[in-house]
Amino acid sequence: MQQDEQLPAAAGDVARAYPELYRAYAALGEACAKAGPIEGEALRLVKLALAIGASSEGGVHSHCRRALEEGVSKDALKQVALLAVPTLGFPRAVAALTWIEDVTESKPEPASR
């Protein structure tokens, strides 16, 4: 679960203003992640794909930052955007790729696992 200090400005403000609400929201996210066998890199990539499908720039940024911290490669993140081309369309996939590059182009590549 992300601490409210690690959230982007507006989300962090809401989390601090309504801590019980944020704790419940974070607990729901954890419960959903533990509800099945998907974990690790696959879980992070699925969450990134969902953020792309929802056209959530903030969600894409968040999942990319977290993925990089967890050792997911930049190329894997970019592939998720490219996989969106046939399903979501070229313009949406290109937008997602630019959102991913907002994060990946400002972060060093993680060390090899």
Would you give an account of this structure?
This protein has 113 residues and is mostly helical. The chain has 2 domains: 1-36; 37-113, AhpD-like (Up-down Bundle). Helix content is 72%, strand content 0%. It has 6 helices and no strands. It has helices spanning 9-17, 19-33, 40-53, 57-69, 74-88, 90-104.
Q: Averaging pLDDT over every residue, what do you get?
A: 90
Give the CATH superfamily of the largest domain: AhpD-like
Number of strand elements: 0
CATH uppermost class of the largest domain: Mainly Alpha
Notable features of this structure?
globular; 0% strand; 113 residues; single chain; mainly alpha; AhpD-like; 2 domains
Q: What's this model, at a glance?
A:
This protein has 2 domains: 1-36; 37-113, AhpD-like (Up-down Bundle). It is built from 6 helices and no strands.
What is the element layout, followed by pairings?
Elements (H helix, E strand, L loop, with lengths): L8 H9 L1 H15 L6 H14 L3 H13 L4 H15 L1 H15 L9
Helix pairs in contact: 1-2, 3-4, 3-5, 4-6, 5-6
